Amino acid sequence: xxxxxxxxxxxxxxxxxxxxxxxxxxxxxxxxxxxxxxxxxxxxxxxxxxxxxxxxxxxxxxxxxxxxxxxxxxxxxxxxxxxxxxxxxxxxxxxxxxxxxxxxxxxxxxxxxxxxxxxxxxxxxx
Length: 126
Description:
The chain contains 7 helices and 6 strands; from the N terminus they run ααββαββαβαααβ.
């Protein structure tokens, strides 16, 4: 709204702020429903081998947390080194890749193929 006043467009700013409020409310309600069912575990895989977890401050973990998921390996300020075996031990519900090459790698690699998320088709590209 402040920018709308600075640009001498308070009405347009108020309209857009209203739409943003509706979108955020809808997202918060959907996240609450998801949390009530149980937060899905999500691994945000970085790199072509998927051996780095998405760090805080990279946008992904915060958005996933806001949406109601629990993001694995997201506690550090930088990408966390993670082995496929560690991901198997965590047993995430979803694996979200940032590198398109990882999709093919995970589907071909015998260790990554053992991951429940990969077997059940819940490996997706962000």
